[in-house]
Design brief:
Elements: H1 2-26, H2 31-61, H3 65-71, H4 77-100, H5 106-113, H6 116-128, H7 134-150, H8 153-156, H9 163-183, H10 192-210, H11 225-251, H12 253-260, H13 263-273, H14 281-309
Amino acid sequence: MKYYLSVLAGAMSYGILSTIVVLAYGEGYQLGEVVGSQLVTGFILSWLLALYTKFKTKRRSQTSKTAATSVFTRLTWKQRLLLMAAGTPTVITGLVYYQSLRYIPASLAIILLFQFTWISVLIQAVSKRQRPDKVTFLTLIILFGGTLLAAGFLEQGLSEFNGLGIALGLMAAVSYSLFVLFSGKAVPSAHPAFRSAWMVTGGLVLLCILFPPTFLFNGLIWSQLLVFGLLLGFFGAFIPPVLFAIGVPHIGGDMAGILGAVELPVAVLLSSIVLHEHVSGLQWLGVIIVLIGVALPELYKLRLKRSRSAPQYSS
């Protein structure tokens, strides 16, 4: 049970981010400052965890050298650079997603970000030149219908929404899809703590190129920006990877995908309560439909696995 709760808590952490970002914008902070403070915090926390893991591994090596070697293997610079490159889409996702929050409500932004589910399927289908199966087609239809309801398009019409904000939200979904596809293939044998640390490092390097971290030197970091940075870094760049690393190996990727969908209702609920954004009953129905669409293919896979593993009796 604790492993299910671990993945659930990690996904809920992601759902908190959009509300914190909107509050930071309300205090007058800019995009580069918000994302930069998040990544700096995530960088420090991730490397503290990696160093603690290394220290703990060395202590274990005193009693069991074989076990220690299997847990911690030194990465080559080629592997480190590969992990750093795999971490760069997270920065692009953060930048365009957080920028979209300037133009559209947080409840709509998270719904647009969740379009990564069908975008990932589309990218894989094109790259593998394989037509999606019937279950996937049904899932895409459910997701599309749920999105129209959850976003409020059917109630208010497209003309009521900012086109740039919608475009940025969809760009964030594409970027996040690429991150999901690339991150799983980048040095999977490495320890999760070091994978996360090097990926965050790559993201921080890219961000420093795009937005030089002047807030670190002009004293702005010691303002309320530090609070927002700590919250964003803790709930965005540190806690979810750690909790997922703990829970996913025990419950499997399929169930983790289902539990991960809790990010959507958490973000919508917080935007309604904290930011006082109006979310109608029809939009909540759309959120539920989107969650069903996300869970459907994973539940179908679990059902197939159980049916195949069940004992077959012949008459």
